[in-house]
Structure formats: structure tokens, C-alpha cells
Design a protein that fits this description.
Four copies of one chain form a homotetramer. The first copy, chain A, has 189 residues and is mainly α. The first copy, chain A, has nine helices and no strands. Chain A has two domains: 9-61, Arc Repressor Mutant, subunit A, CATH 1.10.10; 67-187, Tetracycline Repressor, domain 2. Chains in contact: A-B, C-D. Chain A binds a DNA duplex (31 and 31 nucleotides) through residues 1-8, 11, 31-34, 41-45, 47-48.
DNA sequence: GTCTAAACGAGACGGTACGTCGTGTCTTCGG
DNA sequence: CCGAAGACACGACGTACCGTCTCGTTTAGAC
């Protein structure tokens, strides 16, 4: 029961914001040092609440963009899937989420903890939403039974992340629709 | 004018090998220090020839796996594409290339030079090979004209890289075939 | 007056004891943190009553060993002085006081407050007792008039402290007697 | 045989000087950080050559004051001893050595390595010189045979160090002579 | 054969960031 | 008013790599 000095919300905010700002202004993950300085907070405080700058960044990312998953069951299946992918494409291209995710993906590869967190809290929710629509489609007979949903989901989402990372091709406005169109004939009844 | 002491091939080998071994035994990129020590070479020599450990790793990777691109025009288009993707899947799963690429992709995100090199020397050749087959297919009327080849190539390859990075689903033996099957109906005439 | 919750004697005891135990088990002064933890007390409480761990240690030391000064005027002067030095030697060698004093002397050098306290409350009482006997000796004609009492006291006590600090020679049982014997011919009539 | 970049003498000098200056301007041992900053040298370099600031200080101290030991066998024994003690008193009072030694003694109490070094390289040489003269005195029949030289040496030197530490009495010009006078009757034949 | 320019080894050095520890202060609640 | 719990800023710690530098020492091929 709330003993001791309560954690300062202002500082938490300052830290999350500082991390995001630094990350957006650079290719590389901000250092704990830099975040602390920018946020006007001591390094000790940082380490007390987060194990790494990636964790700080991730927390800020999730807080800002947690509400970006489409679960509208009234939409036709294809439209729902397209909306999902389209939401992702816009997120990656038009919001800070894209740049932040790039760096978090880099960190994920070398740091297992970040990988787990990012997978569980970012990727999986989106994958599950898509799988949900696919299964709904199978139920109502719009999607071919026996479809490998995991694979379809990867086919839908992977190109967007791929282009985010490599930058070899743009994240077009119609990317989502085209990707869905590419996959749809193979999975519809 | 080959004046002066020529560069030692043995040392170059030792360095490339040391880098690969270290990378395979760890999640993170080896440090220049570690590579030099492992190769029995002075740090000076390393810095003389490569700007970063990622560059060392990349050079070794390309040297080992440059011959892994399928250009056989006698195969039917779909078989040729499947073979391409399948070759990639096996490379990523069954050879050191997978682990090395993971780390190089991480480095690419934060280091523009590595990104450029990896894109130009690893990704593009494979993409071009696939595009070549797609265009061949359009020429012989097997592929629908007007197909967005860049998108199709991403749809074919991205899932494999995606699973390499995230590890959320396995790089199955039949992944290549399934991915091609998923895309094929939408692009064939 | 007497308002509010009175100070807890148990905690004071626990703190003094914890400090002494920690000091005896280490070369270095215990930290405030460690004392608080060991005593099962919050750091706040510590800082409320003592400015430093040296102060805690000193208070405990004085409490335990305040009664160790010989003022028996019935003894002959030389015997009284010898008894004084002997008491000190035994204190330094056979009781916790030795180890505690070592650390307090270390702290005294860098911290003026500790130095003053230790000087006033530990050194001076003992010096005055010795000076008292010397002056008594001068009064009864046993000690040469005009003797530099301050110097003699230093000559008597300093070797013991010196050996405590450096450990280059043992604090023998007969150290006190030998030191007195060394000085006596020069000060007796 | 001198491979690699040779160690910079200037930096070594700058470090030793910086440490001494900082120590003289403060009660407490300088931090490694402060020494590095003051010397215009990186912390890494400091840690490469010395394990602690006490070690830096000690090296500087020994370098400056190694030549302060009197070994003149032509002097009468008592004069030689008095000269020894007098040299020490002047060193402690009139040169930086006094303040530096204070802090080194403090460090010695809590750090075994410093203690050993200081004992071996500062105390022992001086003690041996004094013992040498005492033994010479015994040989020529001026000092009573069977004299406990170790004790006499402590009686001669300890008061000076004692006053250095506590500051309860001054290091007078005639301190050396008085101390010798105090001890002499008991040891001369 | 010698000359010579580059490759190479050894290691010093300045830097930046790391993650931890101890300090002393402050804030909030409960006895 | 005492005390517990704990957040916080600060400063120093000792370490790891980084990239650069300054030497001395090979060594193959040009002369």
C-alpha cells in the first residue's frame, strides 16, 4: 500500500519523450546517457526503471500506438485485412513509429529481451488480429478451409517491414491493397 | 608498380574466418578487438582494410555464398522462382549465412555504409534474378502483363527474412513452395 | 517538550552494534547504507541522528570504552604512567577498540569533524590523565621540573598508535613497560 | 625491446603533478577522475599505469623525496639520529610531503596495497637508516648493548607522525632534539 | 644484392558509454 | 515528532571498445 515517495510521472514522461526525440534524430539507438541528459534526469533513475534504451523506446512506442489495431468484424474479410495492412503501412511511413521500429528491430536482433518484448507486445497482437479475420473468413466460407494462416499473415505484413528496413522500395499508399490483391486469389473460395 | 610488401592473403583469410566464427558464437556483432585477437593479427591491420566489423563479416559472407543464385532459364518460370526462394530458405536456415545475415541486417539499420553494401551485393542480385524470371514469364505469356514485379519479389522473399529475424515461425522445407503457391494465382495468366 | 513519538533506544543500539560489527569485519569504514540494512533501520533514521558512519562508529566506541582511564593517585607516578600505556596497548590489541580506532583515525585524516570529535573525546582525556600524573610527579619532586609534559605524553602513547596503524611491529605485552623505561631516565630527578 | 609507441614522459609528469596539486588543495584523496581532468589526460591512461589515486600520489611522493635519508657515518651517533628525526620533522612540516603523507596514511589504513607500498618504500628505508646508526653505536660502545632498536626507532619517529596526523601539538624546530634527548639517557652507556 | 615502400605488430592514448555503488536529500505515508 | 519506504540527483568507480597515433620490424619486388 503506497508507501514511500511515489514515482514521478513527469519524469517518466520526460524520459519517454526524450528517448523518442533522440531516436528520431539519429540512425542509432540513443544511449542511456543521452536520454538521461536530454530528459534532465539522472542515469540512476533510468536504470532503475528500464534495463536498456531499447526498453525505454519500446515503452514509449507502445504507449503511443497501442490503439492502432483494427478489429471491426462488420467489414468484409478482405477489407478488414487490407485495412490492417494499410494501417501498418501508414504507421511505418507517416508516424514516428516507423523510425522507432527500425531501431527496435535492430536491437531485437542482438538483444533477446528486446526481441521478446517487441514480438509479444507489437508483432503478436497485430498477427492475431489478422489471423482472427482469416478464421472468420473460413467460418463464413469466404476463405478456403485449410489455409495456412500464419503464412498468409507473414505474406501480408512482411513486405511492409522489409521495405521499412531496406528502403529499396517505397511504402506506397496502395501497397496494402496490392499485397492483399496478390494473396487473395490463392486463399478465397 | 607492385612496390612494397604485398598484402598477406593468409592474414586476410584468418581475419575473415575469425570474424565469422565469432559471429556464429554470439548474438552480437564481434568487436574489432575480438576479431584481431582471434585472428592473431594487430588491430592496425584490421582498420587498414575494413572500416568496421560488419564490413569484415560482409566480405566473408559474400565470398562464401556468392554462387547461390539460380539463373537457369530452362526451368519453367514458377519452378525457377520456387527454386530461388527455396535456395534462400536453405541458406538462411542451414548455413552460417543465416546467422551472419541476421547480424548484418541489424548493423545495416544503424549504419548506412553496411546497408548500402548489403543491399547492393546481397539483396539486389537476388531480386534481379527473380525479376528476370518474372519478366521472362511475361514475355512467354505465363505471367500476367503489368504485374508489379518489385512487389511480387518482395512478397516472395520478405517472409523468409521476416522469420529469420523474428523467429516467430520456422523456415520450413516447404516454405518456398507455399509462398509461391500463395502468390501464383494472382500473377499467372 | 516530550511531544510526539520518543526516539527508539532499541534502534539506536541496533545501529551502534551493526556499525561495530560491520567495521570489525572489514578494512574499510562501513557505509551508511550497509549499517542501515544490517540494523534493520531506514537510512533516513541514520542520517537523522548521525552525519556519517564514522560518527556512528565513534559513538559506539566511546560508549563501550569510556571507563578505561586510570586516575589512581595512590600509585607511584611511574607505575601510574605505565598502567596508562598498558591499558591503551591492551585496548588496541585485545578489544574491538583497536580495529575501530584504526578506521576512525583514517576517517579523521580526511574529515575534520571526526578528527575533532576523536581528538576531544578519545585522545585528550587520555593525554590529560597522563599529564596529570606527570604534574603530580613534579609536585612531589619525582619528575624533573620543567619537563615538557606534552612531549613526554606523545613519546609514551605515539608508539602504540604507530604500531596499530602500520603493523610493522607487534603490540607486545611489555611494550608499555619498555616505553616507560625508555623515557623514565630522562624525566626523573 | 622497445616495440610500440613509447610511453609519454610528459603525461606521466603531468599526472604526478596534478595528483600532488589536487592533494595539497584538499583534505581528501583526489579522485582518479579529478587527476585525469587536471592533468589533461584520459582516465584510461591513468588506470593503465596506476591502480588507485593513492598509488599515483605515492609514486610522486617517492620520486620527489627519495633523497632525504641521512646515512653519514662520520657524525656521532646521537647527532646522526637527531639529524634523521629532524629531517623527517622538516619534511612533514615544511614540504608537501607532510600533507601527502597524511592522506596516504589514511589510504593505507583501508587499502592493503597502499599500506604495503608505503611501508616498504617510505617507512622501512628510514627505519633501517636509524637502526643502522643505533647498531653502529652499539659497536663503538656508545649505545647500551641489548637495546631494543625497533622500539627506540618507533619512540623517535612516532611522535612526529602522531602530531602530523592529529595536529594536537606543533612540529617544532626543536622537536627532533627534544625527542632524542628524551630517549638518549636510557640507551647510552 | 641492395634499396624501398608498403604491410604489419605492439602498444600508448583520448574518448564515450557502460552499469553499479554510495551519498545525501526529498516526498509521502503510518505509528 | 519518529520512523519506514522509496524516489531522486550526483559523482565516482573500473571496464570495454572505439578509432587514432607513433614507433619499430618485416618483406617482396624493383632497381
Amino acid at each position: 500500500m503506497g508507501r514511500g515517495r511515489p514515482r514521478s510521472v513527469e519524469r517518466r514522461r520526460a524520459i519517454l519523450d526524450a528517448a523518442a526525440e533522440l531516436a528520431l534524430g539519429s540512425q542509432t539507438l540513443p544511449t542511456m546517457d543521452a536520454i538521461a541528459t536530454r530528459a534532465g534526469v539522472s542515469r540512476t533513475t533510468l536504470y532503475k526503471w528500464w534495463p536498456s534504451s531499447a526498453a525505454v523506446l519500446l515503452e514509449g512506442l507502445l504507449e503511443r500506438f497501442h490503439a492502432s489495431i483494427e478489429f471491426d468484424d462488420d467489414l468484409p474479410v478482405r477489407a478488414a485485412l487490407t485495412a490492417q495492412v494499410d494501417a501498418l503501412v501508414h504507421l511505418l511511413r507517416d508516424t514516428p513509429a516507423g523510425r522507432l521500429l527500425r531501431q527496435l528491430m535492430s536491437a531485437s536482433i542482438t538483444d533477446a529481451a528486446t526481441a521478446t518484448a517487441l514480438l509479444d507486445q507489437w508483432m503478436e497482437p497485430r498477427r492475431h488480429a489478422a489471423i482472427h479475420h482469416l478464421e472468420r473468413g473460413m467460418t463464413i466460407g469466404e476463405i478456403r478451409p485449410g489455409t495456412d494462416t500464419a503464412l498468409v499473415v507473414d505474406a501480408l505484413f512482411a513486405p511492409a517491414y522489409h521495405r521499412l528496413i531496406w528502403g529499396h522500395a517505397p511504402l506506397d499508399d496502395d501497397l496494402a491493397e496490392h499485397v492483399c490483391a496478390l494473396v487473395w486469389p490463392a486463399i478465397t473460395t
